[in-house]
Amino acid sequence: MKATIDWTGNASFKATSGTGHSIQMDGPPDHGGENLGPRPMEMLLMGLGGCSSFDVMNILKKGRQDVTACHTELEAERADAVPSVFTRIHLHFVVTGHNLKEKQVQRAVSLSAEKYCSASIMLENAGVEITHSYEIRDAD
């Protein structure tokens, strides 16, 4: 897997994945940024959310669950001292669908957390406390 980061002025950087997808990252105005994109630590948090959400959806689809939406909310805390690393992250999955089985949703979230989500497991191994919760909503 490859990626490139190119400085685009002030505190702004363009990140490009090996598959050719780009996103603009930027620092806050008090650090020379212009608020043109997410901060690098926000990207890390979003990457974790994307990785885990992908796993959950993949597991539920394989389990033949009729999922119509999956919304993941992430809340993180960072250390007050430099480096301001993540200390705690909570992922809350809101899974919507028809006749979803709670046991399968719980299993999907657990498997992502404990076995499949590389980002989550890597951060936990670095000492970040990661917790998960979920709720199931019926599709109208």
Automatic annotation (TrEMBL):
<dbReference type="Pfam" id="PF02566">
    <property type="entry name" value="OsmC"/>
</dbReference>
<dbReference type="InterPro" id="IPR003718">
    <property type="entry name" value="OsmC/Ohr_fam"/>
</dbReference>
<dbReference type="InterPro" id="IPR036102">
    <property type="entry name" value="OsmC/Ohrsf"/>
</dbReference>
<protein>
    <submittedName>
        <fullName>Putative redox protein</fullName>
    </submittedName>
</protein>
<dbReference type="InterPro" id="IPR015946">
    <property type="entry name" value="KH_dom-like_a/b"/>
</dbReference>
<feature type="region of interest" description="Disordered">
    <location>
        <begin position="1"/>
        <end position="35"/>
    </location>
</feature>
<feature type="compositionally biased region" description="Polar residues">
    <location>
        <begin position="7"/>
        <end position="22"/>
    </location>
</feature>
